[in-house]
Amino acid sequence: MLSETFPRATAYLQCIEAPCQATYDAGEPLYTCERCGGLLDVRYEWRRTYLSDVFETFDARRASFHPHDISGVWRFRELLPFVTSPSQIVTMGEGNTPLWDAPRSASYAGLKRLAVKHQGLNPTGSFKDNGMTTGIAQARRLGARAVACASTGNTSASLAAYAARAGMHGIVFVPGGCIAYGKLAQSLDYGAVTLEIEGNFDDAMRVVRELARTTPLYLLNSVNPFRLEGQKTIAFELLQQRRWRVPDWVVVPGGNLGNVSALGKGFKELHDLGLIARLPRLAVIQAEGAAPLAQWYAAGRVGNLTPIAQPKTLATAIQIGNPVSWTKAVRALEWTNGVCAVVSEQEIADAKAMLGRDGIGCEPASAATVAGLRRLVNERVVHPDADVVAILTGNALKDPDFTVQYHTGRLYTDAKWETHMTCAEGKLASTFANMPRRVPADAGVLRQVILDLLETAPF
User: CATH no. for residue 329?
Assistant: First the structure.
């Protein structure tokens, strides 16, 4: 039972900034350090004796029918000991996402093999569910009645679903006209109050952070350290699926940079506890029009990151110019000798189509991983023989318009739609297009189409 294994460590909050490193009680509703404004970590005073056979415990739970064991987050609860009561947990069976081989994408990237961990097969279709279950648990611990976030779409969908399950008010702030309908539809359907802000994601983030300071709203963006506690379990599950063998590289898209931050923390905790012998290298991939972290690295890593006032990419999940978790992301890359790379809109679109040819659908931001790997292999940063896992963050139905427009030759970096396309510039090439074919309802014609098709190889 959960009560038999929880809690076994003292949880507290600690500022990540040196020399501050101020500490706070884990029961305080804080997002940043009250002394210096730095980001906070959830830290633990571990009792290592109960972790001696923890991998065997995690593996045994895969045969359990208890909801906390079925969850791909709470299965690893010994490494999440901030929860003080099982009643705080709201789970939808999050995690449990597959690790698939992607041979065509591997060849496209210049690798001998590539595995993808598809977080898009979470309950609401993205990796945000891993973090939302832990964020909601902390909200319940604090007695919150309303939770809120700013979002490009995935966070709002996840918050809306988990708030509904928890019986809380869900309030989401989204950039007006800049959110894919596949994501907006979820927030509406799950009953969240959806507020379309006149501005971009960074404007929405600024507003919701101010409101979290001046109202009872509990903020569930990745600036909340308890959100990242759930997302770090992606690292645990990935290793469990590999029988606890550490890959050479783990590659993630970079938007608000919470995911790379969480993965870095997860891997480092396992290493510090002596549970794994080495860390994988992390690579974070950003889109050209929304690459503030990559620009900071290119400028020599001096001073603070310079926000991009108007970030621009069709991969809307990573269209963020002022990522709140950038200092944690830098820390994760330093821990793991990681890298940050940039890819173009064309590279993202083509990589997404190539993943599709592996039978794997994903949202555009996810495909930045394969696009980035292709570039990193060409630049000899990643060796073709490397053991690589790419994290796909959201499923294909989050942004189906992108996919259809690519395959029908109508994908533009600048396009405006009303009932029809009214403006279009910056057309992208449909390099791997799979155009639908218009044919008559005539069996003879269709028979010949099929026979001709069978004379060729797929793709």
Answer: 3.40.50.1100
Do residues 314 and 348 lie in contact, with contact meaning Cβ atoms separated by under 8 Å?
yes
Domain assignment present for residue 363? The answer is yes
172, β-bridge pairs? 149, 194
The yes-or-no verdict on residue 417 having pLDDT over 90 is: no
The answer to whether residues 13 and 24 touch, using CB atoms and an 8 Å cutoff, is yes
Query: What is the percentage of the chain residues whose pLDDT exceeds 90?
Result: 90
Report yes or no on 285 lying in a domain.
yes
Q: Show the tokens assigned to 109.
A: 């990237």
> With 70 as the cut, is the pLDDT of residue 231 above it?
yes
Site of tokens 């014609």: 445
- Return d(Cα 67, Cα 73) in angstroms, integer: 11
Asked whether the beta carbons of 239 and 270 are under 8 A apart, the reply is yes
**What is the residue range of 280's domain?**
99-125+227-402
State how far the Cα of 345 lies from the Cα of 349, in Å rounded to an integer: 6
Quote the number of domains for the chain. 1
Determine contact, residues 150/219, Cβ cutoff 8 Å. no
Compute the radius of gyration of the chain from its Cα atoms.
22
Structure pTM? 0.94
Residue 340 counted as domain residue:
yes
Residue 60 lies in a domain: no
The residue count for the chain: 459
Interior angle at CA 328, CA 325 and CA 334, nearest 5: 140
191: phi > 0 → left, psi -120 to 50 → alpha, else beta; which? left
User: What are the φ and ψ backbone dihedral angles of 63, each rounded to 5 degrees?
Assistant: -95, 5
In this predicted structure, the answer to whether residue 1 has a pLDDT above a threshold of 50 is no
